[in-house]
Specification:
Layout (H helix, E strand, L loop, with lengths): L2 E3 L7 E8 L5 E9 L2 H16 L6 H12 L5 H19 L9 H12 L11 H22 L5 H5 L15 H10 L4 H13 L3 H5 L6 E2 L4 E4 L2 E5 L2 E5 L8 E4 L2 H12 L15 H15 L8 H12 L4 H8 L3 H7 L8 H31 L1
Antiparallel strand pairs: 1-2, 2-3, 4-5, 5-8, 6-7
Helix pairs in contact: 2-3, 7-11, 8-10, 8-12, 13-14
């Protein structure tokens, strides 16, 4: 290390040192303009910690390393959520601890604090949100294990808090949806947005990213390969949530006919123009309005996706077929909606009974054959 007073006479300090970068090359580094010797030393130490991935740094310092490594590799809205959770729910409690000093007891005590927190409405965080909070901390520690030689991910060892999925999910029957959609047909943009959400099972971001070129009215299909996000006042069109989300959805004929009329009503609509100018908050307000007007129970906009899945289950389609349509893994459909699939327990038992009867008959025939042999 080398820290020196600047000879230019302005009273500042600078640091000058060499380090080996991640490619194994020796690099000379010089940084000027520090008001004190202490500030120059701190900056030099933090820089070297980041370059070496030293786990002698605090969690808060390591998160900056994590940010440098990961932020550009994931969807911007995903990163915003991750960063917000870490800065609000993790750093205030364990941010000053060194990475190699975070223990299983630390994690348990932190979990207890988070589980006892309440939101602005005085409600405890939902089980799914608690699980999300824990997952963000665990992902940072896992990165430290994988790339920076942290020995253990103590968050994983302790285990998560909360639950992966809420035990209950709301959805509308077709009759409830028909009542709702009739109540909002006075606003065409809202009407067609909710029609697509219900009959095609789209996510909100997928809906709002739709452009004219995504529609093929020869085959009545919609190509889903983008998602719309509004983050800190700026609009972003990103890749969908997962690779599985990239898909082609076939519209029912009645919906395709209505959507073609809707798109034809635009004046000079270009292929790449968004067909919906409404925001997510507008969709929530329209859900409020339609629910009040129709008298059906209020559900979340995202619950229309659940409604679509439950409708397909009721029609007898398999988890694999449904997963392909809505952009999920089939195992996720099985797990999340298992309670909606008709039970096969009685059919299974009957099949096993038949199998046993067949085996018993074979034994009976074999025994009869033995008796015949004895008579001879």
């Amino acid at each position: 290390m080398g820290v020196y007073r600047d000879e230019s006479g302005n009273g500042t300090w600078y640091c000058k040192f060499s380090y080996t970068n991640w490619q194994g090359k020796k690099i000379n580094k010089k940084k000027r303009g520090f008001p004190t010797k202490k500030k120059a030393l701190e900056w030099e130490q933090n820089f070297l910690n980041e370059q070496a991935g030293s786990l002698d740094m605090t969690f808060e310092e390591f998160f900056e390393v994590y940010k440098r490594d990961k932020a550009s590799r994931i969807r911007i809205n995903t990163w915003q959520t991750k960063e917000s959770i870490i800065k609000d729910k993790v750093i205030p409690y364990i941010g000053k601890l060194k990475m190699n000093e975070i223990t299983k007891v630390t994690i348990i005590q932190w979990q207890n604090i988070i589980m006892n927190m309440v939101d602005d409405g005085g409600r405890h965080y939902s089980p799914t949100y608690l699980r999300t909070i824990h997952a963000q901390l665990s992902s940072v520690l896992n990165h430290a294990c994988k790339y920076y030689n942290l020995q253990h991910n103590v968050a994983r060892q302790v285990g998560t808090m909360g639950e992966k999925e809420a035990k209950e999910m709301d959805f509308w029957t077709q009759e409830e949806f028909e009542s709702f959609i009739e109540a909002i047909k006075d606003k065409p943009e809202s009407y067609y947005a909710f029609e697509l959400l219900y009959w095609c099972g789209l996510r909100m971001g997928e809906l709002l990213a739709l452009t004219k070129e995504k529609f093929n009215f020869i085959n009545n299909t919609i190509r889903i390969d983008q998602s719309y996000q509004r983050i800190k006042g700026k609009d972003y069109i990103t890749e969908p949530k997962t690779k599985k989300s990239i898909r082609t959805v076939v519209m029912p004929d009645f919906l395709a006919e209505d959507l073609k009329i809707y798109l034809d009503s635009f004046y000079k609509l270009n292929d790449k123009d968004l067909i919906f100018s409404i925001s997510k908050s507008t969709l929530h307000r329209e859900m409020d309005r339609g629910s009040r007007k129709s008298g059906v129970k209020r559900i979340r906009v995202h619950d229309l996706r659940h409604s679509h899945v439950s409708l397909l289950i009721d029609l007898g389609y398999s988890a694999i077929a449904i997963a392909e349509r809505v952009g999920h893994e089939s195992i996720d459909i099985t797990y999340r909606y298992a309670h909606l699939f008709p039970t096969k327990q009685i059919e299974m038992a009957d099949s096993l009974n038949n199998l046993r009867k067949t085996t018993d008959n074979d034994w009976d025939k074999l025994l009869e054959g033995d008796k015949d042999d004895q008579d001879i």
